[in-house]
């Protein structure tokens, strides 16, 4: 069997995990790495991803990807909806690759393009048609816990009335100030949070709106709409965390809720409870991540906080393991609902 030729886009943490995995796979050939940092251009891929020398030099030339004989591009940059000057950069790059004949698997969003509206859906559909290529988006959550797992669970049910996904995370011992205070916006005053985190909030809303919409469609009931809310918890005193001090008066907790409304009722609910310290927001949910499906029979699963030891590696592997399926699929947008691992779903009741 001919090995699948893979071009990696980006060499951040997820990109490095993906590249190393591809380099180890006998059914795949690593053919190139696209980077955005000029200092990485020309360096051996092995050195950049922590592997042995490959003889392949990193590039920042997109045309080199399009001229290559790669079968698929694993697209894993920091999301442009949050970072950089152009929120639509990722979509532009993805469509350029697809139209140029490259299959694309991304982890930056667009999990269920239908939820973005007709314009985004048409852009991706048209690009796939021009290049006879396939597009797929995946991840951990969204991309596995809050969507694939409930869909799998529904396959054991006669009647499904309600889906509730609850992710509870305490970041007290998470040592990255860049992620906690930079990316996630903790430690900012409410005013600073609103000003600095608007793009990230819009990105999060798009991610989880897609996830809820996909679950609803997967259960045979398109949502009327997906509503979102966010509540902040403010530190009452200075809080010592592994990432640094969360000062009194700044954001120490975030509680997001995305609700799929079907036939006028909340049917699919995805909540995230994020704390920077165990003492924050004691009235919010505590305990394990959990998924509850109400119906007949009812189902309930719980996950330890460390149910996966490395979430970024898991994200990368969900993309890499999808490569053979996406390359074998017909041209077009191929969501998690279209690939073999989601067979056996139940259907959502309106009773």
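Sequence proposed for the structure above (351 residues):
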């Amino acid at each position: 069997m001919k090995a699948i030729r893979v071009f990696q886009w980006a060499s951040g943490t997820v990109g490095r995990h993906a590249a190393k995995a591809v380099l180890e796979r006998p059914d795949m050939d690593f053919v190139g790495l696209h980077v955005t940092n000029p200092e990485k251009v020309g360096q051996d891929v092995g050195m950049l991803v922590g592997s042995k020398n490959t003889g392949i030099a990193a590039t920042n030339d997109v045309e080199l990807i399009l001229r290559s004989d790669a079968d698929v591009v694993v697209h894993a940059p920091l999301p442009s909806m949050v970072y950089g000057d152009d929120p639509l950069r990722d979509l532009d790059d993805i469509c350029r690759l697809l139209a140029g004949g490259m299959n694309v698997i991304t982890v930056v969003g667009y999990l269920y393009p239908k939820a973005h509206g007709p314009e985004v859906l048409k852009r991706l559909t048209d690009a796939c048609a021009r290049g006879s290529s396939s597009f797929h988006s995946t991840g951990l959550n969204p991309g596995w816990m809050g969507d694939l797992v409930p869909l799998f669970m529904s396959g054991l049910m006669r009647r499904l009335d309600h889906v509730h996904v609850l992710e509870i995370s305490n970041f007290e011992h998470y040592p990255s100030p860049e992620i906690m205070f930079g990316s996630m916006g903790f430690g900012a005053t409410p005013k600073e949070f609103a000003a600095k985190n608007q793009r990230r909030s819009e990105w999060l809303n798009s991610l989880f709106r897609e996830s809820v919409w996909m679950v609803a469609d997967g259960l045979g009931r398109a949502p009327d709409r997906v509503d979102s809310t966010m509540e902040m918890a403010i530190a009452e005193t200075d809080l010592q965390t592994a990432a640094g001090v969360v000062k009194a008066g700044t954001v120490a907790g975030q509680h997001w809720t995305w609700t799929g409304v079907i036939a006028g009722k909340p049917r699919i609910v995805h909540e995230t409870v994020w704390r920077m310290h165990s003492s924050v927001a004691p009235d919010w949910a505590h305990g394990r991540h959990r998924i509850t499906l109400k119906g007949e029979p009812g189902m309930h699963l719980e996950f330890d906080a460390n149910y996966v030891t490395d979430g970024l590696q898991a994200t990368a592997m969900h993309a890499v393991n999808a490569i053979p399926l996406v390359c074998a699929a017909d041209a077009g947008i191929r969501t998690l609902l279209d690939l073999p691992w989601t067979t056996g779903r139940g259907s959502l009741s309106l009773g």
